[in-house]
Amino acid sequence: MNSQSPPRPWDIPLRAVRAYPRRAPLTLAYVCLLLAGHAWVVYGATGDRADTVLGYVSTNLDNLSDHPLPSLLGSALFFDGTLTDVTSTDFVGTFITLGLGVCCFLAWAEHRWGKRRAVAVFLGGHLAATLLTAAVIGVGLRHGWYPTAVRQAVDYGVSYGSQTVLAVGTLALPRRGRIPWAAFVLAWPLGGAEWTTGPLPDFTTIGHLLAAVLGFGLLGVPAFRRQRSRTSGPSSDASGSGTRRGSVPEAASSAAGPETTRSA
Length: 264
Known about the structure:
By secondary structure, the chain is mainly α. It has helices at residues 11-23, 25-44, 49-57, 61-66, 68-74, 89-113, 115-142, 159-168, 175-187, 203-218; one strand spanning 244-245.
């Protein structure tokens, strides 16, 4: 009689890592692209080249008026944060946006709904939250709630799209964990919020909250409550992120514009 050895604690995570390329190939490619871009910014770029590139793709008002498409799409090719300073608050933001949002919940969305719908959720959240935040900044400038220098702020990263996916990813959790998770998704951006002269917090906090609201709104769309059909095998959910978007990595200087604190 054959006796099965008890499962080891690392067996389940190891199986998940092995299955990751098959279950979420597009997410894996995107993560590799983000890591390569981060390595170039921090270690590979020479002189002021990183500052120039990050300044060009920043989704500030001036860039959105001058070259909106390169700014909107290019800002999603970099994450703003740190992978090495594990004791910093920047690393916490990187873990939430890149680690949980992109690596885990975007992969879950890709496996559950397929590549197109997962991209639609992530990119749609990134674009919509960015444009809505720009509108809020415009209102804030007219009322004197934000300084005029915010028009050239260095603001890039994946955190708005990640925040949308984190909100939609509520479906991946057991029912008893969904309300605490939703509270966390809404609360964590407020942990680093900055309040100045007006009634609004810093614009990156507003962007994260808007992205979360967009994601929670998608939970009411029937297409996002159904799992995609598969031609073979039973369907199953995948188990499930630089940094606060807008904070500028060490390689980028303030010459490109005033720094903000938008995570990954």
